[in-house]
From TrEMBL:
Residues 258-584 form the Solute-binding protein family domain. InterPro entries: SBP_5, SBP_5_dom, TAT_signal. This is Extracellular solute-binding protein family 5. CDD domains: PBP2_NikA_DppA_OppA_like. It comes from Halorhabdus utahensis (strain DSM 12940 / JCM 11049 / AX-2). Pfam families: SBP_bac_5 (PF00496). PANTHER family: OLIGOPEPTIDE-BINDING PROTEIN APPA, PERIPLASMIC BINDING COMPONENT OF ABC TRANSPORTER. The lineage of its organism: Archaea, Methanobacteriati, Methanobacteriota, Stenosarchaea group, Halobacteria. Keywords: Signal, Transport. GO terms for biological process: peptide transport.
Amino acid sequence: MDSSDTPSGLSRRSLLGGASAGFAASSAGCLQYARSLVDRESPKQVSVRIKTVPADEDEAAVQIARALQKNMETVGIDASIVLMTGAELLRDVLLNESFDIYVSQYPSHHDPDFLRPALHSTFVTEQGWQNPFGISDLDLDEQLTEQRTAVGAERQRAVAGVVGSVTEIQPFAMVCFPTRITVVRNDRFTNWNGLEDPINYLALRRTEDAPDGEPTLRIALTDDRITKNYNPLAVEYRRPNPLTDLLYDPLARRSDGEIQPWLAGDVTWQWTEDTAVTATVKLRDGLTWHDGQPLTAADVAFTYRFLDDTSLGTGNMNVPSPRFRGRTSLVESVERLDAQTVRLEFGDTAEAVAARALTVPILPSHVWEEKSAATNIAGINISEGVTQALTWANPDPVGSGPLRFESRTPGERVVFSRFDDHVLVGGGPDRVSVPFERFVVQIAPSDTAAVSLVTDSTVDATGDPIHPKVLDRVTENDPIEVLFGNSRSFYHVGFNTRREPFGNVRFRQAVARLLDAEHIASSVFDGHATPAATPLAGTDWEPPEFEWDGTDPVVPFAGTDGELDISDARGAFREAGYRYDGDGRLLK
C-alpha cells in the first residue's frame, strides 16, 4: 500500500491491526458468499404443493390428491397437500394464480367451445376459468380459432385437432367424469331428472296425494355459500349452482342439448359478406324484474357492455366479469334497436358458437350500474383494481327468473318463492307449470346428513351430488329412490404452467402418468365414475383415437392396477431433463 493511502493520525501498527481485523471480516464474508453460491448452484429436490378442498367439501378430490402425492413422493418429489375451503381454492386458482397443482372438478360443459376460453393464450392474463393454467401455445391457438369459425365436417376435424393438442400439451391431467348420484322422495314430487340443469326443477310434477296447503319443494345442499352470496358474476363464492341460474334469466337456455329462446321470443341470425355473424334478438312481451320494473332491451344492451367491462369505462382498463368472459368475448358490439330489440355482432364466428353468448344472465341496469366503482378485497391479488360488481354479495338479488329471493339464515337455509309474474310461468303454450310456490334449501354438514334429511322426510332431494360411499345408508323402498346421471363436470389435476417445473411439457406428461384414472374410478368412486383421456369423453365430439380403452392413449399410467412401476415412472422424469441424487430425490 502506498503511504499516501495511510490516513493521517493513524500509526502503522494500528493500521495493520485494523487491516488484520478487516481481512478476517472480509474473509468471513467471502466464505459466506462462496457458501451461498454453492447453495444457490447446488441442485435441490423438486418440491410441489397440491391444493384442494377438505373431505367434508369433496372427499373424492382429497383422495385423488393423496394418490397423486403418494406417487410423487415415490418418484422422489417433495409433495405436500394444502387443504382450503372451496372459496379459497377458487380464489387462489382463478384469481391469484397462486398454485403449483390443484385437484378439483371443472364446471359442467355441453359443447367443445368451452375449450377456447379455457386454453387460448388470449385469456392467459385474465381471471376466472379463462386459461387458469397459463398455457400459451401458438399452434393450439390457431386450432382453437379454426374451431370457432368452422362448420359441419370441418368443425368436427377442427375439434379433433384441438383435442389432440390438448392431450399432448397436458395443461391439465384428466381423471374421470363422476356419476351424479341424487337421493329423492317421490311422495310429494315426481319426474326427477338430473338436478344439474335448472330447467329440471321446473319440470317436476306434484303428486296427487301430496299434502294440502302451500306446495313447498325442499332440497338439501352441502355447500352453504348459496345462503351467503347471490352474485351471479362471482367466481369464487360458489360451485356451479342451478338455483342462482333460476334467479336470473338469459336470452336463451340450453335444453335437450340445444340452445333455445327464453327471454328472447325470436332470434334471427344473419351472415355478412365477410362471414361476420349478427343476431337480432326480440324480447318477449311483458317482461318484468322481481321488483316490478320492466325488463327492456336497454337492460340487455347494458348487460353485455357491463359483462365486458364492469367498470363501464371509468377505470384505466376494462374489468370484465371472469365468470362469463368466455361467452361475452364472442360479442364485438351490441346495439339497442328499440324497447324490445337488440342487435349483437359477433364477427368471424360460427353461428353455433355465437349462440353460447345468449346464455349469460341478463342484469337489471337500475341495480348493477352503481356497482361499477373500484373496490378492493382481501385475499385477491389485483394490479389494476377490481369493481364492486365482482365482490358484492348481492344480498337481496333482483332478477327476472322463475324463482325470486325471499329470506335466508346464513349457513343454514335460504327460501325462494315462485315468481308468478314471470312470462313463462303458468299454463299455456310455450310455458312451464312450476309445481311449487316456495323453494326451501336446507344446508347439511355432510353427504350422510343430507341423505338423512331425505330419508326422514325433512327434504325432498339432495341437490348436490353425493359420494358413492353414502349409498349403503340408503334403502330404496318407496318413496325413496336413488338416481344416477351422467355429469359433464370432470375431475382433473390442473398445472400452473407459469411456474417451473410445470412450464416443461414433458414434466407435466410425467406427472400425468402418475395417475391411474381406471383405479381411481374403481376405488375412490366405487365404480361410479368413468375414466377419461379428454374433456370431451362421452360426446360425439371425442375423436375415436383418444377414447379411453382401459388406459390413457397418450399418457398411460406408469404401472398396473394402481401400483406404480417406479423404474418406468422415474424414466419419464429423466426424459424430461431431470436427474436423481443418491438418495432417490428428483433434482431440479
